[in-house]
């Protein structure tokens, strides 16, 4: 009987297992069918069309968050809050050679800046498009400062008669927390090395120090000059005239009785005032009409990118590898948009062991972060160089403090004139809440076997011995930073110390002080890497990114589908969406503080932000 029972159980379990497998297969086929139906078809480029360049959100070197987070954002109507700079540059350069693309239309209404250095890269691509004999038109109901920088690169700029061009100059404003810290009776112990290292002022001051004001004005003025020069050159205007427009904007508004569109026209900032319909009719006359959409024949940049990349051949042979280091530098494995000591090191190691990668460009857009994580990444760069693979550091909008630390050992450092870099300094912050707890009647007492036992508890006041240890540690970290820079740059400790001290430099000034080798674009850095590797001018570029197997890709598709379904069933209330936007600056600040995870609480970090 037992044998029969065992046999029947075996048969039943086998059939049940087969049933589950068949169910899984049916669900998988069903999911793939639904996914295929919901996936947009591969875009078709019209035979005669305008490329519509419409960046959404900030220009970035790397999209932040994992694919699922981005899928949820898209499902809730928050799609494309960031646009990859390299995608836009690739689109423009490809379209310049495409006979189907007659002209370009700049629709910049959804763009939210990203830094002068990035906009200079895109502006250069637009100029290459024009150099190919194709015209560029820009239209806007209004243009803010960042949007106008790119609009200025067009042959013709059209502004709505009720619009404006707002050029307000660059500012740097910080959030200071001393008031709320005092109210909460939190003791924030601050340790730093570098007299210009001002990040920790937000805990100990209620306003900006005179020293920080002077330093900040130096790099703000350097970036402002870059902005004025870029607009003036593109529009054929005098820099002083554009500066006067910004400085005298209130008087201009008054003299024109609030008609700011006419004011922009009279100052030659725009070509003509037109409504969107009038502008579209003008482009229709050049490329024809889209009968379905009742507008001109055009293709959006993301559709054109998909169409162009679907026909690209697979990369083979020797090439330049690119590792993007974007965001704050943190310990461990981190998602895209941040730099993890483990995750970024893994990409650099992939480049090391890939025989087809003959040189590496490290594209940096980072204010720094964890000291230890920065050091771990630096060692991987040294390993690449030891293996005979040239490493070129290419600085985007920001490569400061830890962002500079991971660049300094490269064979060459390239920066934009508008890059924010330097900030060679160190700090540590250790808050204690003993006085806060006392307000609620909570006290802490106990014993230890040494004077330092329990001295690093958040609920105990930091004793003098612990403070001395932490300050000595910070001084040592600063000495290591300066020594390493001096060795990498082949200078003396004193030479680097003079330009260090936590001071932030614009790229054009950093080059004069010997902190970077050359000023130029990302493309210049790629060319230099290819030359050092002996790849010639017609080289291939491979972006080294975390690999995604079929399981991960399938999971991402299912998550994205689930996000869309969730959006349909549980729409987000507008109140919550608006509240998030209003509180975004505070959320950003608190998120930044919460992410800091250096094991020793020691940071190479710059509070600077590129306008």
TrEMBL record:
One of its GO terms (molecular function) is serine-type peptidase activity. GO terms for cellular component: membrane. The keyword Cytoplasm does not apply. One of its GO terms (biological process) is signal peptide processing. InterPro entries: ClpP/crotonase-like_dom_sf, Pept_S49_pIV, Pept_S49_SppA, Peptidase_S49, S49_SppA_67K_type_N, S49_SppA_C. The chain crosses the membrane at residues 21-38. It comes from the Bacteria. Residues 129-284, 384-535 form the Peptidase S49 domain. Keywords: Hydrolase, Membrane, Protease, Serine protease, Transmembrane, Transmembrane helix. The keyword Nucleotidyltransferase does not apply. The active site is at 197 (proton donor/acceptor), 401 (nucleophile). It is found in: Membrane. Belongs to the peptidase S49 family. This is Protease. It comes from Steroidobacter agaridevorans. The gene is sppA.
